[in-house]
Amino acid sequence: MGALPFLQGKVKMPVMPGESDEYYALRTFRKDGSAVCTPIWLAPAGGQLYAYTPARSWKVRRIRRDPRVEFAPSDFHGVPHAAWRSGQARVLPAAELRTAKRAMTAKYGNKFRWFTIITLLGRARKRGGRAVGIEITTSTSEHAT
């Protein structure tokens, strides 16, 4: 809306989650049901949200066990500043990783490219393992803000 400054703040357009905010708080759930909040980048593509993270991260382990997730726009540290939304997450098979990478590159550009380099260096040290994509599906009724 930069071209129409007089409308700034007056017209609320439906926004796909993941479209405008840079950081998100992602809640995943432990075996005992307690929530764990982690800051993450999310990027929209084709009606889904995508993330990219090391395969051995705890959030990936929790998602594999329980696909329920909640997410909210947040600051860099994962402190949410808007309402939580719920969804179902799945770890993408290697054949679908490109979809997540394209979405992340489209939204974050060079920041994401640097992140992938850092992830590869971590993989070389065998700490985080290979990178995986995460796909989050939300109900369409939750897409409007």
Automatic annotation (TrEMBL):
Keywords: Oxidoreductase. Gene3D superfamilies: Electron Transport, Fmn-binding Protein, Chain A. The keyword Oxidoreductase applies. Transmembrane segments: none annotated. Residues 25-123 form the Pyridoxamine 5'-phosphate oxidase N-terminal domain. One of its GO terms (molecular function) is coenzyme F420 binding. Pfam families: PNPOx_N (PF01243). It comes from the Bacteria. GO terms for cellular component: cytosol. PANTHER family: HEME OXYGENASE HI_0854-RELATED (PTHR35176), PYRIDOXAMINE 5'-PHOSPHATE OXIDASE FAMILY PROTEIN (PTHR35176:SF11). This is Pyridoxamine 5'-phosphate oxidase N-terminal domain-containing protein. It comes from Tamaricihabitans halophyticus.
